[in-house]
Amino acid sequence: MGNILDYARTEFRDFARLPFSAVDSLVLSELAYVHMPEAVPRFNTTKTVATVPLAHALRAEDYPAMFTTGSEPVNEYRLGLLRAVCESPRYRGIRVGEYAERLDEDDQQQFSAMTFDLGDCRGLDYPGGLLYVAFRGTDGTLVGWKEDFNMAVRCPVPSQRSAADYLASVAARSAGVLGAPAASLMIGGHSKGGACAIWAAMSLAARECSAMIDVARNDRELPAVPQNAGNLPIVEPRIIRVYSHDGPGFDSSVTGSPAYRSIAGRIDKTVPEASVIGRLLDDGPVECSIVKADAIGILQHMGGSWQVADGRFVTADGLSAGAQFVDRTIATWLAGVDQRQREVTIDQVYDIVAAAGYANFADLAAHWTDALPKILLAAKDTDRSTRALVAAVVKGLPSSALRVMVSPPEPPASGELRESSRGSQDGAGED
Fold first, then answer.
1. Annotated region Disordered: where (predicted)?
2. Is 63 exposed, middle or buried (0-12, 13-18, 19+ CB in 10 A)?
3. pLDDT tens, 350-365?
4. Residues 176-199: tens digit of each pLDDT
C-alpha cells in the first residue's frame, strides 16, 4: 500500500485501462493547494477556457511562492506530487488554467480554484473533452479548521458563492460553439473544497433548470411549465461526477432541496476512518466511502495520509470508535442549539484550542504536553457541551486529556450528553 504520491509516481496505466476514480480526483484536489505561477492563465480573461500544459508550472524560481504552508514536509510532498503528475504517462497530457485566488479578511473569504483539462490524456473518450474543476480546501491549520466549521453553521459562505460563479463561467465558456460538443465536467475538492464543489454543482443545476423554465415559457409550442419544475433534471447532463474528499456536509434544508437531489446521484464522497470535518452535518442520500489512513485522529484529514492499493482507495468497514464518538457529540450539540449559539460556540471553541499557541494540529500534537494545560485553562469556565465539542475537535490526541475535558464535576445537562461523555472515555485513543 501507499498514498496518492506513490500512486502518481508508479501508476502508468492510461484511463482506458484504469478508469478515472476518486483517487485521481484526490490527486487533482491536492494540486489545487499549489499557488499557481503567472505562467498559468488567470480566471475569466478569455472567451474560452484557457489552459497550458501542467509542466509549465515546473519552474524552480517560482517554487517559494507556490509552496507556502510553513511546513517543509508538506511543501516537499506537494512539489513531489506536482512533479510526479507531470512525469506520469497517465497524467502527462493534463493542462491547467483559469487560476483564481481571493483572500478577503473583511469578507472572511479564502477562495481558490483552477481547471484541469484532461482532453489530451490517453483513454478518455468525451467528444467535447473533459474538464476537472478543482476548488482549494483548507489545510491543517486551526484557522482552516475553523473555516470548515463555519461552513457547517453558515450556508452559503462567501467561498461557496465564488465557487458557484466560477463554475458557471467555466461551464458557459466550454459549452461549444457552431455545433461543437460541449466539454463534460467533473468537479471536486478536498475539505472546504469538497463542500464548494457540491454547492457549485447545485447552483449550476439550479441555473440550468431556471433556463429551461424560461425557454418553456417563451415558446408557445411547448407545454405549460409543471408546478414541480424545481425537480427537473439538469438540461444537459454535462456534470459527470462531483467529488468531495472529507468535505463538510449541509443542513437538511439544503440536502432536501431539488437542486441537491438533482446531483445527489453524481456525488462521490470519501472520508477517512477518523473523519471529523467530513462528518459535519448531513449528506442526505449520499453514502460515504470510508478510507484507511496512516495518520492519527484529526490528522487523517490530510489527504496525503489516505491509503491506495492497485489504483483504488483501501476502504474500511466503518468509522473508528473515536470518530463515532465525535459524530455523536457534534450531532447532539448541533441539535441542541440555535443558529446564533452555533456561531458563538464555534468562535469559543476556536479560541480555546488556539490558546495553546500552535497554529496547526501537527504542532499541537507534537507539543501536546505543553498545550494541554493551556487548553484546559481556557476551557475551564465554559459549559459542558462546549468542552465536549473541544474534545471532539482534538480527538485522536492523548485520550487522558479528553477524559479530563469532558468529565467536569457538575452533572451532565441531559441524557444525550451523558452518553457522549461515556463515548469519549470508552472510545478515546481507539483510532
1. 404-431
2. middle
3. 888 888 888 776 677 7
4. 877 789 999 999 999 999 999 999
Region of residue 430 (phi > 0: left; psi between -120 and 50: alpha; otherwise: beta)? alpha
pLDDT at 8 over 50: yes
Expressed as residue numbers, the domain containing 398 is: 337-404
Q: Specify whether 101 is located in the same domain as 136.
A: yes
Torsion angle, CA of 195/199/201/206, rounded to 10 degrees?
170
pLDDT value for 193: 95
Helix 384-393 / helix 321-336 crossing angle, nearest 10 deg: 140
Helix ranges, 174-234 (H) = 192-218
Q: Do the bridges between strand 130-135 and strand 184-190 make them parallel or antiparallel, or are there none, so unpaired?
A: parallel
Check: CB of residue 70 under 8 Å from CB of residue 37: no
Tell me: do 293 and 197 sit in the same domain. Answer: yes
Nearest Cα neighbor of 374 from 393, 356, 398, 362 is 356
Question: What whole-number distance in Å separates Cα of residue 85 and Cα of residue 28?
Answer: 9
Model pLDDT for residues 189-236, shown as the tens digit of each residue? 999 999 999 999 999 988 776 544 443 334 433 333 233 334 444 445
> How many helices (H) and strands (E) would you count in the chain?
16, 10
Residue of 127, 67, 56 lying closest to 92 (CA atoms): 56
Asked whether residue 245 falls in the same domain as residue 108, the answer is: yes
Chain centre to alpha carbon of residue 109 = 15
User: At which residue does the C-alpha cell 463515532 appear?
Assistant: 324
